Amino acid sequence: MRITVYPPYRNVVGQDVIDVPTDEPISARDLLLRLGKQFPQFVTLANAKDDEFLWGQLTIHVNEELAGLATLLHPDDRIDLLPPIAGG
């Protein structure tokens, strides 16, 4: 599973793209837990109580659509980790 990482999370992982090995779908929460093993900053996000808390810290886009913690991510999906977007 290939993930494109945008600032400020790019600074956490140290690169633009990271690969997470998986042959089967995993939830967005599970992805964050896997990332948390290598980059501890993601553990708090993985343990978010709900999507709205997560979205205040990080947005996960899957095939250009906003994803929640329970969203299933497939190995061939386009996944982007982006900062939250403020609106008004």
Outline of this structure?
It contains four helices and seven strands, in the order E-H-E-E-H-H-H-E-E-E-E. The protein is of the alpha+beta class. The strands form two sheets. The chain has a five-stranded mixed sheet with strand order 2-1-7-4-5. It has a two-stranded antiparallel sheet with strand order 3-6.
Notes on the protein architecture:
The chain has helices at about 10-15, 30-40, 40-45, 50-55; strands at about 1-5, 15-20, 25, 60, 65, 70-75, 80. It is built from four helices and seven strands, in the order βαββαααββββ. The longest helix is centred in the middle third of the chain and has 11 residues, at about 30-40. Helices cover about 30% and strands about 25% of the residues. It has about 90 residues and is an alpha+beta fold. The strands form two sheets. Strands 2-1-7-4-5 form a five-stranded mixed sheet. The chain has a two-stranded antiparallel sheet with strand order 3-6.
